[in-house]
């Protein structure tokens, strides 16, 4: 059973994933070339190589058979387990609980080698619907307080399989970084009675210098103080605190926006590895007037080293104004 342990100094929770790597040799990575020779469990016809599917959008076939367009399965090596009680307890001065949660894989397409930037918009839209459907289902479980949606693309970004997929992890606690972002947003709202993200959208749309692109529903920009070069944010123009409350027209437009943005990044940076993360409000919270969901894309162009770990500062060699100009000049790709 995994454990959640709380750092008594910072208040940060850490997952001790006892079902994963335990010995030093478990951390040695295989060369990239070796990964392409393995049988991919996410490919068509290999449905029996994954745990039974939780959700699938299909053209034909029965559960765990070919005929699907998007498929969601439990992670075969989950960082948290869905069965059991939290069993919060102390160990002297320390706090811990059972590692209860959910860890799922969203298999984005039957095609093994395609990327999100290369997918049809309708395919991306269905992936976004899978995100929404799974969050809305899992949030019914009151043990779960935060649900993270994220994608690791490329080995440098943490992807262990080439087949396009993203992941969902449901947590019984609100991560410290999320709590800080929500609290800072509320502090701004309490002082100015406006959402800080809505203000950012208005200012960046007006100034245009860090704006990448925009539609009637979304704004894509390089943030004013990015941690990493070409860090890119996608924000809905209408104030929404929870991604899972997005309406159908928004998901349709987001599919175009996400595809176009990733195509720009591929064109300018020659197809880098990247992470994207959906920042959304805690799932048990009601609508929040002070928080605004958004999606952050982080191309893997630099490494976090000693200075960053020691200070929490980030060194970014590329001003966001230049990143935005390069991405704008790439056209709609």
Gross CATH architecture of the largest domain = 2-Layer Sandwich
Reported for the largest beta sheet, the result is: 10 strands, antiparallel
**What is the general shape?**
globular
What's the number of structural domains? 2
Helix content: 25-40%
Structural class: alpha+beta
CATH first level of the largest domain: Alpha Beta
Order of helices and strands: EEHEEEEEHEEHHEEEHEEHH
**Low-confidence blocks of residues:** 29-35
What's the CATH H-level homologous superfamily of the largest domain? Answer: HIT-like
| Estimated radius of gyration | 20 Å
**Remind me, CATH topology of the largest domain?**
HIT family, subunit A
Distance between the termini: 46 Å
How many strand elements? Answer: 14
The side-by-side strand order for the widest beta sheet comes to 3-4-7-9-8-13-14-12-11-10
Number of helices: 7
**Average pLDDT:** 92
- Strand proportion: 15-25%
Note down, in words, how this protein is organized.
By secondary structure, the chain is of the alpha+beta class. It folds into 2 domains: 3-175, HIT family, subunit A; 177-329, 2-Layer Sandwich (HIT family, subunit A), CATH 3.30.428. It contains 7 helices and 14 strands. The protein has helices at residues 32-35, 121-138, 176-192, 196-207, 248-269, 306-311, 320-329; strands at 3-6, 13-16, 55-58, 68-74, 89-91, 94-98, 102-107, 146-153, 165-171, 211-214, 218-221, 232-236, 274-279, 294-299. The strands form 2 sheets. A 10-stranded antiparallel beta sheet has the order 3-4-7-9-8-13-14-12-11-10, sandwiched between helices. A 4-stranded antiparallel beta sheet has the order 2-1-6-5, with no helix packed on it. Strand 1 and strand 2 form a beta hairpin. The longest helix is centred in the C-terminal third of the chain and has 22 residues, at 248-269. It is globular, with a radius of gyration of 20 Å. The protein starts with a strand and ends with a helix. The relative contact order is 0.13. Mean pLDDT is 92; it is low at 29-35.
